[in-house]
Amino acid sequence: MTTRFLQKKYLLPLGILLAMVLGLLAPSVGLAVRGSIGTNPLVAIIFLLCGWEVDLNDCRFTRKTLAIFISGAFLALILSPWMASLLAHIMRLGEQATLGLIVISAVPPTLSSGIVFTKNALGNVFLAMTVTIGYNIMGVFTMPPMIAWCLASCVELEISPLKLFLQMCLYIILPFAVGGSLKYLCRINCPKWMAHIPNICVILLLISFFADFRKMLLDSPASLLIASAFAGMLLHILQLAIIWSGGLLAGFTPEDRKAMLFTAGTKTLSVTLTVLAFLHADTGLAAVPCTVFYTVQMLLDSMLSAHMGKRA
């Protein structure tokens, strides 16, 4: 009972705080993680364990599932950047900060942490994975026009859908299939102690992330960090509120609402920085609100998922 409580209530939120401290104060730890393990293998481990643990007997696609998918796509990929643009205008953020906030709002969900948060909250993991993969593929086509419209400029982004899909096959779909094969073909059940591993993988990913962006964060003006944190927190809470209340009105199950909350409501930093690189803004002030937004998102979602998992 103590171990289960620790895993759901404390391990991931405290682990994220530890990742911030280690990444900022001892960057060599994060660089060692990146050099010895790498980020893609950690993502693959998360999805392998998801495939090993998920109960495929509960995975059914209905008309309501399609409605969930489409409505979430509209919020995550279409409405979200317009919300960011309006918020940046109201707060009178600078040009570079506005660019960063709009870009991270237009990108698809994060590939790893959303799945882990859904699992910790006892949500529909299979739906969360479906949404994550689907929205990342759709995001390749929605990002350029949405960023261009929100910035009222011509933005040309050359992102290969085929390359993105192949990467997902290698690091997401294949590991998930291997995990499912262990359970349903080899009849090997996933050991209970492995439930901790996805959380640990997310923490290791964040240690590496904060080590990479340590200098940029420490060199940024305090006013920009505070404004970015406030804007990111407000925007993320607003997105979560829309998803949860919309799911309630539509009659979605609690498990489905949790899956959408931690996938459609989250954003990936790696794709964001890739887009900023195309715009030649990946090393400037535009990257600061993205980094702070991602940090706020991770902290809020880790605590929320732990709370939901405990209540369930």
Summarize the structure.
Helix content is 78%, strand content 0%. It is mainly alpha-helical.
CATH topology: Na+/H+ antiporter like fold
Helices and strands, in order, run as HHHHHHHHHHHHHH
Structure summary, number of beta strands: 0
The domain tally reads 1
Major sheet details: none
Low-confidence stretches: none
Q: Which structural class should the secondary elements be placed in?
A: mainly alpha
What topology does this entry show?
Layout: H1 2-25, H2 27-36, H3 39-53, H4 63-91, H5 95-106, H6 113-120, H7 125-151, H8 161-184, H9 197-212, H10 214-219, H11 222-250, H12 254-261, H13 269-278, H14 287-311
How would you characterize this protein structure?
The protein is 78% helix and 0% strand. The chain is mostly helical. It has a single domain, classed as Na+/H+ antiporter like fold. The chain is globular.
Feature tags:
single chain; 312 residues; mainly alpha; Na+/H+ antiporter like fold
